[in-house]
Design goal:
This protein has twelve helices and two strands; from the N terminus they run αααααααααββααα. The chain is mainly α. β1 and β2 form a beta hairpin.
Length: 262
């Protein structure tokens, strides 16, 4: 139990913390927060649990400002701190807020912190996939970002399993079709000026059909298609995945040769 005077001073510290955050004086706010944490560990009253949330939002705002100013490294550092504080706050509330946890996952995704992003997206699916209010966003955004995250982690088969589900949910969506085709059939990266083949999950036969479908749905109807990078990407991959699928069916290689000559 704490006295009314202790409670008053704790409230005053919290209001000062909020004021410092509003003024953009995050280092001072964080110093105040850590001192209050140490005091609480020693048996003191500590700060309002919402302090972590306010700090998180302060760092989020700072990240947005740094990004607008073109300071990419500083924006990434602020986003990392933002995600850490908001995750701790969410954990203290038994992860009762889908939007907060989603913000954490997206911050890691934007920072290309793929392992952290994977963990939080999986946590979102586990906690909220049975929530009828959240299931649409999970299917439309969270699973797609998770699949992209898994590709960056070179977990091609795990990503392919998610894309199989997404294709059932969104069979007409050109972005899903394209990304699934890349996952199944692989792609080419440039490293040190040289092309490097990325294998994907190895379902090259599936990739052939998906690239053909993507070409039909996304670029064939474009009147200025030959000036559209999507046109040339689709053309390249309709040839490339046929070449890679040749062990499954030699006729794919013949088709690849004909398309290439055309």
């Amino acid at each position: 139990k704490f006295t009314s005077q202790q409670a008053f001073f704790a409230g005053a510290k919290f209001q000062r913390l909020v004021s410092l955050i509003e003024l953009g004086r995050l280092a001072e706010a964080e110093e105040l927060f850590k001192a209050a944490e140490a005091e609480a560990e020693s048996g003191g009253i500590g700060l309002n649990p919402a302090s972590e949330y306010y700090l998180a939002m302060g760092y989020r705002k700072a990240a947005e400002k740094a990004e607008e100013a073109g300071d990419v490294d500083q924006a990434r550092a602020y986003r990392k701190t933002f995600a850490g504080y908001l995750y701790d706050y969410s954990e203290g509330r038994a992860f009762d807020s889908y939007p907060n946890l989603r913000l954490v996952a997206d911050a890691y995704y934007d920072n290309e912190a793929w392992e952290d992003a994977e963990a939080i997206y999986l946590q979102l699916i586990k906690l909220f996939s049975s929530d009828p209010i959240r299931v649409e966003d999970i299917n439309q955004t969270v699973k797609r970002r998770l699949a992209s995250t898994l590709l960056n982690l070179k977990k091609y088969q795990e990503a392919a399993d998610i894309y199989d589900d997404l294709l059932k949910l969104f069979p007409e969506n050109p972005v899903v079709i394209r990304n699934a085709a890349l996952c199944f059939g692989g792609w080419v990266d440039i490293e040190d000026g040289r092309p490097v083949e990325v294998p994907g999950s190895g379902a090259y036969g599936k990739a052939v059909g998906l690239w053909d479908l993507y070409f039909e749905r996304a670029v064939r109807q474009d009147d200025k298609r030959e000036k559209n990078p999507k046109f040339w990407e689709a053309k390249f991959f309709t040839i490339y995945v046929r070449y890679r699928a040749r062990p499954e069916d030699p006729s794919w290689f013949i088709q690849a040769q004909k398309l290439f000559k055309n």
